[in-house]
């Protein structure tokens, strides 16, 4: 330990004496077990994200071999007179450069082509990073950069699975826990941040702490939904449940928005009921045009389906699709039909519009990846993604429908629009995440792809401008929307976003990252020299 501290101290001194600008090659002298890289391809990867709307090249990239490597790097940054920032990058699936930095080092938490599990690059994935399942206590310990798909694969070997998900599994544990991690299970289990027992976190001072409800609880709650501002998650202990075997996946359509939201709200109100009396997943989406056929949620409405949307939507208006699932084991499959029937009877959808499919649990959870592969094959995945994710209070969702779905959007969407309600009681208010001030609120997600197709309404400019229009409409109509995966460029906007939570957020920052080294790409704080 003493030797490590001495090495770190020497590196800090070294960086201090480098001169007024930090010379990236000096970073290579930092003693790490993994690899500090100036390789142009590493810098290029770290300078991009899924949004593909901005590029920011770091000074260097760290492929860590352990949490200790991260401690060493952050300590060096913390002790540096010049100051350089450190950004953890999970799978780089942010939209607006949240995992990037130009004035520092990006830590590739989820590995790269050189790293994970290979004998090349910085070596084999260390044993420390492999998921460890406790069958008796029903949890799994995972490396912060682990992708959820790999968490699922390893827990399934024990017949267990995490309870709360995102729609897409090629995201890192640290990345989704820094936001919230939501999908159709959130009404039942809360977001992913409500399903974590314990974390190991490297703070902005380069200290490694284990934290939980009972131990270093301030850090624990700060980091969950904390946009990477307070520490780098190196390990997370995730709650598990017995894994279902199969999923009955149902979609039904509505032309009446209030009938749609009434049913969604009814379904999430059943969260306290025994599992036989509720669905396991409640989501939904908006269909404003035939674009649905081209987007990554359309596979369900396959050409084999007997019912055509156009035959239902005879007046060409907006349609709403409720998406629900029921998990089951083959041993209980005899009761599943009656349970679903009893629930569907209470809903008010268009009777001829029931689309049902049945598939293995893992295939359901991994559904978006299938669509990703299709889009990739058509060159439609690596394109700019001007996404906008909003939490809308229940009391304003109908105003939002009129103003946005039936107004601003026209009849073009350029991607799926998700809409589903969640209940605030499942969200721990001690975490850093911000939600609207109402018991029930909706996620509305505009997941658009900008294309260079010659059609102006698909261009990046057009869609970015439309996002602005939607935000302006929310302000003007007093909707009190909160951005999920928030993106702001001024501190005034951040203050407004956090509202009552700002004072606590700021205080936590001063305590855990006083030099504002971490996750500068969120643009909440400027690093201090
Ligand atoms: P990155 O983009 O790499 O990082 C995001 C932020 O977290 C950065 O500020 C980064 O510095 C910080 N960070 C990363 N790792 C760590 C760590 N170990 N410790 C501390 N901070 C860290 N979200 C949902 O909630 N539900 C969904 O259904 C959903 N679906 C999605 C589908 C797609 C196709 C995409 C592209 C995104 C989706 N998201 C969804 C959003 C996603 O959860 C966030 O963008 C998330 O941050 C991505 O994870 P990542 O590992 O790529 O994070």
TrEMBL record:
What catalytic reaction does the record list?
Answer: N(6)-dimethylallyladenine + A + H2O = 3-methyl-2-butenal + adenine + AH2
Keyword Lyase in the entry? The reply is no
Sorted alphabetically, the keyword list is: FAD, Flavoprotein, Oxidoreductase, Signal
Write the signal peptide boundaries. Answer: 1-21
Q: Which domain of life is it from?
A: Eukaryota
Record bears the keyword Signal = yes
Enzyme nomenclature, EC number: 1.5.99.12
Cofactor(s) needed: FAD
A matching Pfam family: FAD_binding_4
Kindly give the Gene3D superfamilies that the UniProt entry links to this protein.
3.30.465.10, FAD-linked oxidases, C-terminal domain, Uridine Diphospho-n-acetylenolpyruvylglucosamine Reductase, domain 2
Where the record annotates domain FAD-binding PCMH-type, the positions are: 54-243
PANTHER family, A to Z: CYTOKININ DEHYDROGENASE 5 (PTHR13878:SF102), GULONOLACTONE OXIDASE (PTHR13878)
State the similarity comment. Answer: Belongs to the oxygen-dependent FAD-linked oxidoreductase family.
Name assigned to this protein: cytokinin dehydrogenase
The organism is Ziziphus jujuba (Chinese jujube)
